[in-house]
Design brief:
With 473 residues, this protein is α/β, with parallel strands linked by helices. The protein is built from 13 helices and 25 strands. The chain folds into 2 domains: 243 residues, 3-Layer(aba) Sandwich (Rossmann fold), CATH 3.40.50.300; 211 residues, Rossmann fold (3-Layer(aba) Sandwich). The N and C termini lie far apart (51 Å).
Length: 473
């Protein structure tokens, strides 16, 4: 039983609508598995906070179309309901082809490339087609009345493979406003599945990389309660719940589990919390015991570990607290210089630098493993990357191509003489330069976030190096 929540564009309130649905379903004691289209880390944190289950990312760029189907089948079959939150606008995606040229196909009314393919790869529409899910379209009505019909009709007709099951009208201002919207939509015979009025008391704060993560919001439970109250009254549940029914996908192959033999210290606190749950699952399936700890609060790194994993997050926001925890900074540096394998993605990379220079220009000492500093700035680096390994390193062999995602507002003062990767944009030949630190050789520090779902050899190689480190002790 599954639906996908899509927006007519970014910023229309998809996440609010999704959380409202999840909160109301959970209040009804329904088990719900949530999914998020794309590489985002923060929205899934909110999903998990509401459902109590890890949210799964569905991203065919970072993984593959087959993996998306298998991941959805594996986890959706465990609950009564499944809900997918889309990304950006319904058809906002990228071209899977290099050097493709756009043209307009008049017979289909679709923007296509020179091979007649729609350029919405990795979009919400792409995932809806892959999983054969009905789409509930969220429309921001704050500056609309009669024009809502043109928007809804366009999304309803542009791709006949997409089933728009109904709309949710968000940010409706008054009864008169709602009446105008309903009158405009009536000729389309498109069900109105929900109406959310403008809400002044429901706001999720954001900052330079999107929403503020759940761990930093002490009033979050009260907010979720307000969303559940809203959900009880704003949705047409009689017509919405039957939409969750869908044909089950073929069951995915069973994944082998190996007995735990390697302890991996995974930094997880307010500074480091960007992890794909599938990556953590793979480490456990391959025989790792994950030891979660806090570089912010703990007095030392966990005992008897053979590897470390620092995910992304917001070390710049907590730079002073990280800097003041000198025992942990020294312990991390000592362990790595003694040969302990360590993965550090984005925020983790920043933590391994000599210092972080925050938005105000203040310098905060970090571990000093890498002879460079991370400087915060206004420029956002964002996008999918194709990264080709320039040398054998902790995770991949030279010449291996991986697909990842960058999302940060910092840059390094010094680049490595022997970088890990040569990177380019995923959807074209534009070279994005070389990046990543593989020195010491037991370190993999990069701005590029990787999802290992289709690359089991990456965690296998990491754990192999951890075992080798253990033997050498």
């Amino acid at each position: 039983m599954s639906i996908i929540i899509a927006g007519e564009r970014s910023g229309v309130g998809k996440t609010t609508v999704t959380l409202t649905l999840l909160a109301s379903l959970r209040r009804r004691d329904r088990l719900v598995q949530s999914f998020k289209v794309g590489p985002d880390y923060i929205d899934p944190m909110f999903h998990q906070h509401v459902t109590g289950r890890p949210c799964r990312n569905l991203d065919p760029v970072l993984t593959s179309e087959t993996y998306v189907q298998q991941c959805f089948a594996r986890h959706s079959q465990l609950t009564e309901y499944s809900l997918v939150e889309g990304v950006m606008g319904l058809f906002d995606g990228i071209s899977p082809l290099v050097n493709s040229h756009l043209s307009f196909a008049e017979d289909k009314g679709l923007m296509t490339n020179d091979k007649g393919q729609i350029n919405d790869f990795a979009s919400t529409a792409h995932i809806a087609r892959l999983l054969d899910l009905p789409v509930v379209l969220v429309i921001d009505c704050s500056r609309l009345s009669g024009s809502v019909a043109a928007i809804a009709h366009g999304y309803q007709s542009i791709d006949p493979r997409i089933k728009i099951a109904g709309v949710v009208l968000n940010r409706v201002g008054s009864d008169r406003h709602l009446s105008l919207l309903k009158d405009a939509l009536k000729p389309l015979e498109l069900p109105i599945l929900g109406v959310l009025r403008r809400q002044d008391n429901i706001t999720i704060p954001d900052r330079h990389l999107g929403l503020v993560p759940t761990a930093e919001l002490p009033e979050l439970n009260a907010l979720i309660d307000r969303l559940a109250d809203l959900g009880d009254t704003c949705f047409d549940w009689q017509n919405l719940l039957p939409l969750f029914k869908s044909q089950p996908l073929p069951p995915p192959p069973n994944l082998p589990h190996f007995p735990s033999s390697i302890r991996i210290a995974v930094a997880r606190d307010r500074a480091f919390n960007f992890y794909y749950q599938d990556n953590l699952d793979l480490l456990q399936q391959l025989g790792a015991e994950l030891v979660f700890w806090s570089p912010l609060k703990d007095a030392a790194i966990p005992k008897d570990v053979q590897g470390m994993y620092f995910g992304g997050g917001f070390p710049e926001v907590f730079a002073q607290q990280l800097a003041e925890n000198t025992s942990v900074r020294d312990g991390v540096k000592t362990a790595i210089l003694e040969g302990m394998p360590a993965i550090a993605e984005c925020g983790g990379l920043m933590y391994l630098c000599e210092q972080i220079i925050d938005f105000e220009g203040k310098s905060w000492a970090m571990t000093g493993v890498l002879p460079t500093s991370a400087v915060m700035g206004g420029r956002l680096t964002l996008g999918y990357r194709r990264a080709v390994a320039l040398q054998d390193n902790l995770l991949v062999k030279a010449g291996t191509a991986v697909h990842g995602h960058e999302f940060h507002r910092s840059h390094l003062t010094l680049t490595p003489t022997k970088p890990l990767f040569e990177t380019s944009r995923y959807d074209c030949d534009e070279n994005m330069g070389c990046e990543g630190w593989g020195f010491p050789a037991n370190v993999h520090a990069s701005y590029v976030h990787l999802h290992w779902g289709e690359s089991r050899e990456i965690p296998e190689q990491f754990l192999k190096e951890c075992r080798t480190y253990t033997i050498s002790l």
